[in-house]
Amino acid sequence: MPKGTESMINRRRLLQGGLGLLAVATVPGCGFFDTKPAGSGAQAATAGEKESPMLKALVDKGSLPALADRLPKNPPVIKPLEGKAQYGGTWRSAMLTQEDTQWLWYAMRYEPLLRWKPDKVGKPGYDEIEANTCEYTVDAESKVYTFTLREGLKWSDGKPCTADDLLFTILEVQCDEGLHPDGLYDAFTSPDTGKLAKVEKVDERTVKMTYTSPQPSLLVQIADAIFEREGAYGMLLPKHYFQQFHLKYNKNANALAKKAGVGSWTDLFTQKQNPWTNPDQPTLAAWKVETPLGKSSAVTLTRNPYYWKVDDAGRQLPYIDNCRVEVVQDAQVELLKVMNGEFGMQYRNFGTPQNKPVVAQNRQKGGYKIFEVPTQLTNTMVIGLNMTHKDPVKRALFANKEFRAGLSHAINRKEVIDAVYAGQGEPWQGAPPKDSPYYNEQLATQFLEFDATKANQHLDAAGLTKKSADGKRLGADGKPVSVTVLVSESFPDHVEAIEFVKKRWAAVGVELRTQAVSEDLYKERVKGNDHDAGTWTCGTFVLPTGTGGDHYWVPTNDGSARYGIGWAQWYQSDGKKGITPPAEVQKQMKLFTQARQEPDPDKTLELGKQILQIAADQFYYIGVSSVPNTYGVVKNDFHNVPSTMSESVAPGIVHPEQFSMGQ
Predict the structure, then answer these.
(1) What gap in Å lies between CA 436 and CA 184, rounded to an integer?
(2) What Pfam family is a match for this entry (predicted)?
């Protein structure tokens, strides 16, 4: 992932959130035609039972080593939230189309080198990060990172997981020029030189990464799981399996690719790395894929016999034997299945404000409870006017703060909230919430009032005093002012909400045209600087971070700078491409770069506040409303799920391996 590429943390999730407690998560369960109760096959673990009967039977047959030979020397201990410790059962859930792999990654495979603690609230620094597959240390300057894998850690095929796997993944996968022809992602390079950090094997379990200047965002990005995704990415992959597809280790790798019907070894490697379509690759996750994505109407998984965590009584996790994730094509289908009680635990896609009344009304019939997921999104819809537009007339107009302020005052946010978001949320600009350490009142509340008089005053101040016979304001070129707003079809609420904005802007003399396009086309148009404006949701402000993060208040990448893509391209290319930003924007960028490299959390917070104050003064995005919390459902016989969970990598943040099923 080259510098400036969007984060894998997919911010487009519509109205999702989360807040973690101790240990819980989600993984799909049994099928649509399965008439067994959700906890069928689950049985309480007896005092002397340390593993699933499913695995004990294999041990007794001699086809699987004894548990003591499968666990690491000191396995992590995860205490079940409700004390429920039944083995067995199938966890049913759903994903929305085959593209919804984020559910699979976060529910069934959130096992990075180190992870977020379940009670994460988003404080700067490392306090909310904990060890996972490895122990780790960081020097005071955030220059030297040491990762020591757990002694005796094994892959799902029983092979040892060692420093060679970690070294291979960083150097030969994540940082291989053949696999990444567009350049290395800058989390692995020293900020002062742009050169790859020194990556060395210390012993059979330990790898050390040494930078020449601070790189404090590395741990945050690992915990965010941005390296855990489809493609030539990762932090810990099994070398013994993947080296057969890598040209450095197999001179016949291109021949293998040709035989597989793909262009080159890089294409084959990328294909094989996708765990959801390739069940052959070994894993460290609690469950391993049996029926891959695309081969059936569901993805099925079964327990990993070498999973390396235990509960507080020394019993091997996970408790649940199998998972089944149905691939549904429509959110309404998922909603109906939720109301019918067909899922053991389900979160995502259906949890909108509009659906909550019917979900709540069907709790008794469906035999489920609702858990809350406080959102980490900060706005339901922001509108970014492209201030680096190719048309000089539009560029000048969109860059005029008075114009943006006028359009903001022209929006009746209450009618949008009532009609589109079921009356939930409050008028809000694109800004961190009140409970955020980065909260800025000016940024959050300026130009919010629906007031046609104020709107017209600001538009007049922007120089739009001349009007056509039908009341349309005329621009500097004498033409009626018109703004075409791109809307991704991934946001059906935006398609609906923008119509209310269109009506109100027309009332003050500004025409709004809408283009609803696929997400891929949307991104292509934005990256090409071929847009007037675009909508999106608004995420959180996180420092330290990588350039891949979406930072809505400083134009550092095309993932969030829909209001200034040319400036973002200038920043990404160190001034070689794009459009030179104004002085205040450049000041922001310098502060942002400094904050990304600042190891002291208190100093990072102060730098972040300075960045946001400039954003408040500049007023980049026009926001609509704060985001209501989303929610999920859990069957009454599905246990150890907290009443709330953090949106951060939800539900993986609450340890899905300790979910349990049964009466």
Answers:
(1) 32
(2) SBP_bac_5
Question: Taking a C-beta distance cutoff of 8 angstroms, is the pair 518, 425 a contact?
Answer: no
CA distance 91 to 129: 28
Cβ–Cβ < 8 Å for 450, 478: no
8 A C-beta contact, residue 299 and residue 291: yes
User: Are 544 and 592 within 8 A, CB to CB?
Assistant: no
Strands 144-149 and 134-138: antiparallel
Sequence length of the chain is 663
Beta-carbon contacts of 71 under 8 Å, excluding residues fewer than 6 positions away, are 152, 308, 310, 316
Q: Strands 322-328, 533-538: parallel, antiparallel or unpaired by DSSP?
A: unpaired
List, for residues 243-258, the tens digit of each pLDDT value.
999 999 999 999 999 9
**What is the pTM (predicted TM-score) of this model?**
0.84
- How many CA atoms lie less than 13 Å away from 205 in the CB half-sphere? 14
In angstroms, the CA 290 to CA 307 distance is 16
Q: Got the DSSP string for 184-226? A: --GGGB-TTT-PBPEEEEEETTEEEEE-SS--TTHHHHHHTTT
What are 464-518's pLDDT values in tens digits? 999 999 999 999 999 999 999 999 988 889 999 999 999 999 999 999 999 999 9
Determine contact, residues 130/382, Cβ cutoff 8 Å. no
CA–CA distance, 487 with 510 (Å, rounded to integer):
18
Structure tokens at 274: 């996708």
State how beta strands 206-210 and 198-203 pair: antiparallel
Helix residue spans in 391-430 (DSSP H):
392-398, 401-409, 413-420
